[in-house]
Amino acid sequence: MRKLEIRLYSSGIICQNSPEFDDLFGFSVKDVQKEMRRGNRLVRCKRKGATVGCEVESCQKSYHYPCAVQDGAHNVEDNIEEKYT
Question: 10 Å Cβ neighbour count for 63?
């Protein structure tokens, strides 16, 4: 099975460290827009609205959660760092 490190794209679960904070609950508008664009490029089903993206910053793969599982992604919840890998 191929291991793909993934994280949930959700403001309630993970916060990117960014020097630019505003009214988006501590999220940079630039970071949010970047993740929204990435959510439009799905790997498996080719539909829009991905909520799971690769944890490796250089990797641009995005999935719906069920598609990530079907594609062989390895999901491990990390409550300390508030991410899934």
Answer: 23
Residue 34 is assigned to a structural domain of this protein: yes
Give residue 12's region: left, alpha or beta (phi > 0; psi -120 to 50). Answer: alpha
Q: Is residue 19 part of a domain?
A: yes
Residue 77 pairs in a beta bridge with 84
In 1-85 the beta strands, taken as DSSP E runs, fall at 6-8, 52-54, 62-63, 77-78, 83-84
Q: Write out pLDDT tens, residues 6-65.
A: 444 444 444 455 455 555 566 677 777 777 776 666 767 767 766 677 777 787 777 778
Contact predicate 65/51, CB 8 Å: yes
- The reply to whether the predicted model has a pTM over 0.90 is no
